[in-house]
């Protein structure tokens, strides 16, 4: 069993940077971040293996977002640079036994989500 909790959310302005953290309990799994904006489906943002390697990104965030992990602290990070109003969404971290890619049905455990509003 894995329990995930996100930290670091809040209201930010367009162009700002923000780092989200996700603290996981339990054994190591591959991890990822998803987001869901109002009236839109949940979409994949970024993923990384259980050993902190081979990061994988959605095209919409390449070059602006960076996923990383601190294995010793069981923590996953999402560094978000160049925030845009359309970046606003609820962000969730998640863990999978089999993937760090964009198929949400292959993720087994989910955090509660954290709201990231972005003002103009």
Q: From N to C, what is the helix and strand string? A: EEEEEEEEEEEE
**How large, in whole angstroms, is the Cα Rg?**
13 Å
User: Which percent range fits the helix content?
Assistant: under 10%
How many strands appear in the DSSP assignment? 12
| Multimer state | single chain
Which structural class best describes the helix and strand composition? mainly beta
* Total of helices: 0
* Morphology call: globular
Give the amount of beta strand, in percent. Answer: over 45%
Question: End-to-end span in angstroms?
Answer: 40 Å
Low-confidence spans: none
| Overall pLDDT level | 93
Biggest β-sheet: count, sense, barrel? 6 strands, antiparallel
Description of the structure:
The chain is mostly beta strands. Helix content is about 0%, strand content about 50%. It has strands spanning about 5, 10-15, 20-25, 30-35, 45-50, 55, 65-70, 75-80, 90-95, 110, 115, 120. Strands 4, 5, 6, 9, 10 and 11 form a six-stranded antiparallel β-sheet that branches. A four-stranded antiparallel β-sheet has the order 1-3-8-7, with no helix packed on it. Strands 2-12 form a two-stranded parallel ribbon.
Task: Describe how the helices and strands are arranged.
Layout: E1 3-7, E2 12-13, E3 18-25, E4 30-36, E5 43-48, E6 56-57, E7 65-70, E8 75-80, E9 89-96, E10 109-110, E11 114-116, E12 118-119
Parallel strand pairs: 2-12
Antiparallel strand pairs: 1-3, 3-8, 4-5, 4-9, 5-6, 7-8, 9-10, 9-11
